[in-house]
Amino acid sequence: LSPSNSVHLTSPNQKVKITAKITDNGYVKSVSIIVDGKKVPANNIGDNKWQTSVKLSLGYHKLEIIAYDNLNQKSTLTLNFKCYNNPPKIENVDIKDTKNNLPPVRSIIPLVEGYNKVKVTITCSDDDSITPILFVNGVKHTLKKIDKNKWSAETTLNEGRVSFKVVVKDSFGQSDSWTASYNVVTLKAEVLG
Questions:
Q1: Which of 102, 142, 107 is CA-nearest to residue 122?
Q2: Is pTM, for the whole model, over 0.70?
Q3: Which member of 24, 43, 104, 154 has the greatest number of CB atoms within 10 A?
Q4: CA 65 – CA 85 distance, rounded (Å)
């Protein structure tokens, strides 16, 4: 039976070919292929194979194959499978202090004395079904959606080493991650001018 348990689509609502090989001691009299509760035409293509093509959207689908032999005996196979597209991707992670909007320089996050907050903005692939997760030194932070594919959070940092990790996972279990470590350094306000 094809597909087995998953189908990779290059675009939503793509045509997918479904093929079932059915054998019997006598002969197979009829075959029905049902996709998501709707019967679709099944063509006998020879070599005990029946085939159809259907447009499938991203997500989970149910496939049923019902076959009858020459003695009117019925056999049914049910399969749940998923159609997925490209995995999610973390496109950019932007870290800036909330006072002067300064980004990290090499592996250092410069903070102005008395202001120890940074804003982390995450841009992911353009997919509504994903939400990234931010960890700072292993602690999960709540992200706020600020645009179609952007999220942000503010966090307080202390001097020393800090690690950031972003994980994004779609509903099919496909994922992407990003990690970075920085040294947090507090600067006197006059140093920044």
A1: 142
A2: no
A3: 104
A4: 25
- Residue 2 DSSP symbol: B
- Residue-wise pLDDT tens for the chain (193 aa)? 456 666 777 666 788 889 999 988 888 999 999 999 999 999 999 888 999 999 988 888 899 999 999 999 999 999 888 887 777 889 999 999 888 888 888 888 888 777 889 999 999 986 666 789 999 999 999 999 998 889 999 999 988 999 999 999 877 677 899 999 999 988 776 555 5
- Amino acid at the residue 57: S
Cα separation of 157 and 73, whole Å? 70
- Dig out the tokens for 44 from the structure: 């006998």
Nearest to 1 by CA among 65, 68, 46, 62: 65
Cβ neighbors of 83 (< 8 A, separation 6 or more) are 6, 7, 8, 9, 14, 16, 56, 57, 58, 59, 61
Contact, 159 vs 83, CB < 8 A? no
- Residue 105 makes CB contacts below 8 A (sequence gap 6+) with none
Do 95 and 104 meet the contact criterion of CB atoms below 8 Å apart?
Answer: yes
